[in-house]
Amino acid sequence: MNKDLSLIPSIRMKREAMTNTEKRVVDWLLDSTKFDKKTSLSMVAESLHVSEPLVVKVAKLLGFSGFRDLRKQITSSFEINHLNTIELSSQDSVQDLVDKVFDISVQTITEGRAILKSDVIEKAAKCFFHAKNRDLYAAGGSNTICDDIAHKFLRIGVRCNSYRDVHLMMMSASLLTEDDVVLVISHSGKTTDLLKVVNEARKNKAKIICITHSDVSPIAAVSDFVICTPAPDTPLLGKNASARILQLILVDAFFVAVAQQHIDFAQGNLEKTFHATEYFRQK
Fold this sequence. Notes:
Blueprint: H1 3-15, H2 20-29, H3 41-48, H4 52-61, H5 67-81, H6 94-115, H7 118-130, E1 134-138, H8 143-155, E2 161-163, H9 166-175, E3 181-185, H10 192-203, E4 207-212, H11 218-221, E5 225-228, H12 238-259, H13 263-276, H14 278-281
Parallel strand pairs: 1-2, 1-3, 3-4, 4-5
Helix pairs in contact: 1-5, 1-6, 3-4, 6-12, 7-12, 8-12, 9-10
Domain SIS: 124-264
InterPro entries: Homeodomain-like_sf (IPR009057), HTH_RpiR (IPR000281), RpiR-like (IPR047640), RpiR-like_SIS (IPR035472), SIS_dom (IPR001347), SIS_dom_sf (IPR046348), WH-like_DNA-bd_sf (IPR036388)
Domain HTH rpiR-type: 5-81
């Protein structure tokens, strides 16, 4: 893991376990237009109308020895990664907007790669491949990611069950066993319905793989394997939309890791499904 690249996304993940006031402090500190090497502890406290001890407390919760250590490392990360807070402006041209969208997408991918734990991908892939049943759960926009997963894995003969209705999810979860696995996608990691379904699956001893923005989210807390997508929040895309880019890339990485479990099996089925659908491509 590249420490310089992983610092900011790691802070975003730790932020989720904090109080609302502490989160406001973190958000201020991660804004490169406000926070730099000259920013004093008193300036942060005054700007946010909080006490200086609270700012120091936040620094220590984030793993720093104190405010000075926090300032040094965060501002250095801003410089090394050339990160800037991306804002919309009425003066932006279409080219400016396109550039900003690309910049935030590249930033999201770079940060995601820096915090990725390949050993988690490896263990989750082995569990997923050898499972008897594979349930895919999501809500809202994340359902499109589940559709993509189901399609990818069907191509190599690894069948999945993808559900959009929470009642069907719960019915399926109630029938799972220790031989089965659930892959749940939830950016917030807090969706009540998904959490209830995942807890039902866990009660029946199914293994849980989750893709979420923070390893301290409620769904992450009850999962066996956690794949994090700590995307930055921007006025352009928001957290969910920018996270979707990273989720799709991580799904591709997870897919090839599963396929690697039995390369001949995957390649043989890929040829079968390709030839089976060749007729439709000739129309």
